[in-house]
Amino acid sequence: MNDKTKLANYLVERMTDVPESLRPKTVARALENLDTLFSGLRSLNLNGMEDLIKAIGESDFALANSVKHHAYTSGTLEHTIGVYEKMTKENTMGGSIFSSSELILVSLLHDICMASHPDWDISPDLHGVKSGDIIRRYTPEVGDLYPEAMFAIEHHGSKFHNEKMVLEHPLLSLLLQCDRMDADECPVGQYI
Ligand SMILES: [Fe+2]
Question: What distance in angstroms lies between residue 79's CA and the mean position of ligand 1's atoms?
Fold first, then answer.
């Protein structure tokens, strides 16, 4: 049995909250989403990224879900890719203000704090800030290379930004807009 089959079986066993008829599709999407996540992160060529990818693989990010939207096994991963697709589309329509690297970093890692890992101290009250801590821990130069992307990730939690901040930081504004749009597409009780 190869690693992909093992992972698929592992996901299927835990998808008890997803209606049985939808499980094969949801598992296939989860595997595809993991490929998109890891290849996107690798494309950033950041020192330490392989260690972060390894840690994400060890965490339960592939299974994680939010209680407010995408509230099913692997929902957070689904949402992550949804935000990535929406940010890319909106950026193109708006004249490509942001680099693809910024969009990849912001969208693919903004909710990494939703995963559990023995080395990660996760507090739901620090949503976003904890994602930033995790990213900085593995890729120390990320703050110098992508200051606005890290600012957006660390301030996207509802308690950590205000109107003025959003106006002054367009990448944060785009993340919030696409995060909301994607969350609204999958309210509690709905599956993709
Ligand atoms: Fe999000």
Answer: 7
Indicate whether 25 belongs to any domain.
Answer: yes
pTM: 0.94
Q: What's the start-to-end Cα distance of the chain, in Å?
A: 27
Separation of CA 16 and ligand 1 centre (Å): 23
- Residue 10, domain extent: 3-185
**Residue 102 forms part of a structural domain:** yes
Cβ-contact 74, 63 below 8 angstroms: yes
| Averaged pLDDT, 69-76 | 92
User: How close is the Cα of 179 to the center of ligand 1, in Å?
Assistant: 5
User: What helix, strand, coil percent values describe the chain, rounded to 5?
Assistant: 65, 0, 30
**pLDDT tens by residue, 114-128:** 999 999 876 667 889
How many separate domains does the chain show?
1
Is 191 among the domain residues? Answer: no
Q: What local confidence, expressed as pLDDT, does residue 191 receive?
A: 86
Residue 192 resides in a domain: no
